[in-house]
Amino acid sequence: MRIKKRTYKIIAITFILMGGLLHAQEEYIVNHSKFMQKTNPSYFGFNSLNKTGVLYNQMKLNEFDKMDNKYVFGALSFNNLDFSLGVDVNSFKIQNTGLTINLANLSYVYKLQFDNDLFFLPAVTIGFGSSSVNPGNLIFEDQLDTATGFINSESIDPLAPIISNVNYLDLGASFILHSEQFMAGLSLKHLNRPNTSYNKEVPFEKPIQISVQGAYEFDLNPYERRFLPRYSYLYAYGSFTKFGDSVLIYLSQDFQLGEFSIGLSQQASSLNTFALNNVGVSIGLAVENFDFGILYNFPFQSPGAVFSPSIFELFVTFDFSIYRRNRRGQYNRLQTDNYD
Fold first, then answer.
1. Distance (Å, rounded) from C-alpha 151 to C-alpha 8?
2. Which is more confident, 300 or 249?
3. Cα separation of 78 and 49, whole Å?
4. What is the CATH number of the domain that holds 277?
5. How many CB atoms are closer than 10 A to CB 60?
6. Do residues 161 and 123 lie in contact, with contact meaning Cβ atoms separated by under 8 Å?
7. DSSP characters over 26-52
8. Beta partners for residue 110, in sequence order
9. What pLDDT score does 166 carry?
10. What pLDDT is attached to residue 1?
11. Is 213 contained in some domain?
């Protein structure tokens, strides 16, 4: 029984390490369209907004273990100097295995105006990452006594004392071009290919991640018909991400019906085979300068496909840009009204 219980921990951490390699490009934020800065940091300068927000989600990895993810961000615009600063911090913790990952990023976004309704936002990002694992939760081969069914408390494996923590620097660049009708973006992450291996004698360098994004917003009630709220929009968003040998495709459709919103999302990936990984459903409520949201991700498990957990997500954001308060009730996502 003791070996069986410990084996579950080995299996769980193996899934996490695989998931980190395959899905780290999105860092476990499901609602990409509302937290687009996770995919493209240029979004911190979008419409020169001053915003802050927090997000919590929980991933069910299997019947024995879960991962908690806490995320906070802030964006501050200096309109008279044509730039914005963005900061975000992510913290992950596996409940039973003791794996902890912390990621912090600082982004500088510059604003260029091409015409009255077209803006270009280049950005550079510097990040710091750290991860640690409790070796006491890992089982090495020399600890297993198959004859008695017990596990020895200590290992003489030379790798055991090495597996503890790792720190690294991460560099990136990104771009966004947008108007009040469309948005197009490109982001490059891990440009310095940081070494994230616990064992420095066997390095693992993160491959450069390339992602392209696009969005278009439709006015669903241009003639102000009574069967829909006055301000009703459909925000269609998609991204394509290449990370090493894996490819991730994300699509979402957000219906904004006055202060209420409902959204659908689909995520597919390709490693050994192409497969649909999950479908998500979200609902939201806008109250004054606050946005509240909840999302649940339904996984699809296919043989040979990338592991996809179920995810429950909550978030709240606050927009404290003083010049937008009079237009808050319009609710459309692609706006340029706050630029000087």
1. 14
2. 249
3. 10
4. 2.40.160.40
5. 15
6. no
7. TTT---TTTSGGGT-GGGGGGGG--EE
8. 83
9. 81
10. 38
11. yes
At residue 326, φ and ψ (nearest 5 deg) are -70, -20
Domain holding 278, by residue range, is 2-330
Q: Which residues contact 227 (CB under 8 A, 6 or more apart)?
A: none
Show the tokens assigned to 274: 């192409």
- The DSSP code for 3 is H
Do 323 and 70 touch, CB atoms closer than 8 A? no
**Total count of domains within the chain:** 1
Please indicate, yes or no, if residue 303 is contained in any of the structural domains.
Answer: yes
Q: Quote the pLDDT of residue 171.
A: 95
Arithmetic mean of pLDDT, 174-196: 93
Element housing 170 (H / E): strand 165-178
Residue 34 lies in a domain: yes
**Which residue has tokens 């990136």?**
172
Q: What is the pLDDT of residue 11?
A: 39
**Spatial contact of 269 and 248, defined as CB atoms under 8 Å apart:** yes
Give the separation between CA 85 and CA 64, rounded to whole angstroms: 40
Residue 63's pLDDT band (cuts 50, 70, 90): low
Phi-psi region of 304 (alpha: psi -120 to 50; beta: other; left: phi over 0): left
- pLDDT surpasses 80 at 214: yes
State pTM to two decimals.
0.82
Q: Is residue 337 part of a domain?
A: no
Q: Is the pLDDT of residue 92 over 50?
A: yes
Q: What is the DSSP string of 212-275?
A: EEEEEEEES-TT--TTS-SSEEEEEEEEEEEETTEEEEEEEEEEEETTEEEEEEEEEEESSSEE
